[in-house]
Structures are given as C-alpha cells and as structure tokens.
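In keeping with the milestone schedule agreed at the kick-off meeting, the structural modelling team has produced records for the first pair of proteins. Each record is given below as a sequence line and a structure-token line. The laboratory manager (R.T.) confirmed that both were archived under the project's standard naming scheme.
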Amino acid sequence: MKRVTVLGSTGSIGKKALEIIAAFPNKFKLEAIACESNTKELKKQIALYKPNKIGVVNKYADIKFKKKLFVGEDGIAALSRDKDSDLVLVAINSSKALKPVLAAIESGKQVALANKEALVMAGEIIMKEAAIYKAQILPIDSEQSAIWQCLNGNNKSDLKCIHLTASGGPLYKVSKARFKSLSKEVILNHPRWKMGKKITVDSATMMNKGLEIIEAMWLFGVRPEMIKVLIHPQAIVHSMIEFIDGSILAQLGITDMALPIQYALSFPERLDNLDGLDFNKIKSLDFDIPDLNKFPCLEFAIDAAKTGGTLPCVLNAADEEVVKAFLEDRIKFHEIPILIERIITAHKVNKNPNLDEIFVCDDWARNRIKELVCL
C-alpha cells in the first residue's frame, strides 16, 4: 500500500493520477493533494477522494478548508516532506516545483516527476541530493518514461544514444513564413495530445522537446550529444534507445498519459487497467529530423544542455515569461524565440551554481523579459 501525495491535482496529470489511485484502493492510499490556485476544483476533489491533507501554492487564493492545510511554496515543500506519504507525484507547473521536489528527495521518498522545469533549473543538484538520500525519481513525461522502461535491466555502458521522439507539434507542417500570421487557436490546437496551454505553446516552438533533452540528460546520466530528437507524428513510439551493437529498443503505446502516470505510481509493478494498441489501425510509423532553422528554441535548449551551469535555468525562466506574455496577447508568437535569444545571449553563465544562485538567475531572466515586453 503506497501512501501518495499529488501536487498539482487540479491539472490534467493530477486529475488522471487521482483516477488511477481511486481505481486501485488495495494498492494506493491518497494522503494529500495540492493545487496552485484552482480551489474550486480542489474542493470537488476533496469531497470525492477524501485526502487527509490539503495544499495551495497561491497564498491569496480562497483557502477555507477544514482539512489540515499547507499554504505557499514553503507550505507545499513541507507537505512534500510530510512523513505520512511514501510517494510524491509532482505535477505543479513551472519553477514552483523545485522546492517541493527537493523536499521530497530529502525525505527519501519516491518522486513521480511530471514537471521538467525542476530538472532543467537544477538537475545536477537534484540528482546529487537523490543519490545522497537514496530517493527514487520516477519520470512521468511519456518520453522519459519510455526511455526509463527501455533502459530498465540493461547495462547503461552499452548505450550508444537515446532517440527522443517528438510529435512535431501543431506547426510541424506549417511553413515558417506563416508563423507571423498564425492565430492563437491554431497554435493551441495540438494534433495528438491534450495538454495545458503553456506546454502546448512549447510544443509549437519545440522548446518542450529541448527542455526534455536537458531533463533526460540528468535523469539518465548521459551527455547531451547522446540524445537525438526524432519527429514522429503518430506519437505511438514514445522514445527509443540504441545500443553500441546497433540494437534498438522502443516503447510503444497509446497517446494517453494514463500509461506513464500509472507506471510511475505502481513501479516496480505493472497494473492491468489500460487499453493497448490496436495494430490493425496503425497505417504507418513516420520519422523525420527537426528543422532547427524553423524551430530555433530547440537549438537554444541543445546549446544550453551542452553549456550547463545557470544557462538552462535562464532559458527556462525566459521561456516561461515569454509564453505567458504570448498567452496574454502582449507579444506575437514569432517574437518568442527572438526574446529568449536576447536573454540567453546577455546572460553570464555561472558554471557551478548553488541553489540560491540558481534562484537569482531565475529572477534575473524573468525581470529582463518583463522589461523587454514592456518596451
């Protein structure tokens, strides 16, 4: 019986996790849930799933609950650290997940990680802490879960490279010349996955795949040069690993986040709860190489992965702020990479930052973007 805390319970990942937990009452006990600010949905979840403890990141949200309550970023970190849970599923968006991730790790818990920003910001620190406290990090991103499953039981010294697949996003077949005239509705219409707005925009710029390169580098302890992005529009092959003898292992599955969420929750077991692929309906499996001229954000992330230090943190912070500005109609879509490039070019990289220095760089990048957007 695993006692589970779900951070980000009102988002799509969190909601699916709660459904899986409820489907296996003999396997899981829901100890706590937390959201950023959607307390209306949180109240519904409290009534339905009856957790013992509640958390809300936004201290200004409506937080009148009778349950034991944890408020603010420090409160959510305390909830992650709480001794009554064995596994913390982190589906909080953005850099707000970093403190809760570290708190869970320092408690020696399993951390089911659906947030990539924490590893992008402070991957080296997180992985060192996980080793010290013997905490397991269980990836939930479909691609990272696929790599994890393929590597399981194999000798990593035999690994030649990782093929990180990408659907190509909503703009895969749209010419770059049209980017200036695209509506927000087109950009937010992902052809394969139903995701939040921020990650859908990142998919359109392919920044999402770039951040996954940095995430995978830390999760699996590989050099960025060993991670190859491969566009796969059908999104059936979730990723592959290639060995030095040319053998390739792939993980295939339906385009449903329930699969990686359930595997992270149940690991090392597998649970019988989901539909498999219908191979009669698969007409083709296509693959392509991404166009870095068309998607410069992917190249920015590749360079940040190779450079390391504070650059990935600055890249992530700049991206979060420009995507927010785009979603609020303060900038145009084609301006996203232009603004990000200005920030990462201006940044003086600290090669070996501590946690405080990472947060300083995060703030610096956000403030610089806000200044540029206001010009």
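The second protein of the pair:
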Amino acid sequence: MSVGLRPYLASDAKRCAAIFRAAISEIAIEDYSEEACEAWAARADDLKAFADRLGEALTLIGFTVGEPAGFASLKDGSEIDMLYVDPEYSRQGVATTLIEALERIAFSRGARILTVDASDTSKPLFERAGFRAERRNVVRIGKAWCGNTSMNKALGAKTSEH
C-alpha cells in the first residue's frame, strides 16, 4: 500500500483524536489494562489541548487513498512525541513511513540522535526501525500506572543490518 505524507493542519485534530483513541482501545489494550487505556485515551477528550499539542510539534499525517490513516509528532527536533495509526491501517507501512520521515527531518535539522518513549505496544516497531532500548520507565496516566521504554537511534550513521 502506498502511504502519502503531509503536514498536520488544525482541521485534522478531530480525526487525529479518533485515531489516537482507536489505536489505544483496539491495539494497546493487548498490552495495558483497561483502566490504563481509558486514562490514556482520555488525553484526547480536551480536543483543543490535544490539537495544541499536535500543533506545537512538527506533526505529519500519513494518509492512504486520501484519508488520514495515522500521525506522528516530532518534539524539540529530536523526540518522537506521538505515533498512532488507525487500527484499520495497522501493519500496512503507515507507522514505518512516518518514522522514516521524522528521522530524515530530524537529521536535516541537525539532530544526531532521535529518541522516543515507546509504549509496550510500539516497542517492537521501534526496534525494527533500529532504535535501541535505553531504560524502562513506569509512568502515571490518570490513576493508572503504565510501563514504557526510552529508546534512541543514532541518525546519519550507516548500519550493516540490512
């Protein structure tokens, strides 16, 4: 499947919030408790705050057949802040395309290391993309505790893993 990219627009906020909620409730639920997923998905309940978070970062929309299928945000030039794909488009290259684009953008803007706090759900994806685990974290979301892994990837370096 072909995945196109474009910059986030304020008019994308509602669709991004729907993707965010669906990815958590249908995919992350396999790795986290229902309570944790509900608290996590609730972060999109305040649509203005959610839209502001996307707008303050460099956010890309991944789309297929003209429809937004996922999004990813680059924060502070070297941190992947959010990466979510609609479950309907899961495992079809949307997340990989978004990660590769953010890597190129970060590198072109001077970053030499890209970081992410990967959920247990997304950790295997980031490992396949060449990220290395740095440390395990436990974070509080609402009243729930969730684990994630801080990961990083050196940018611009040639690897022999292909």
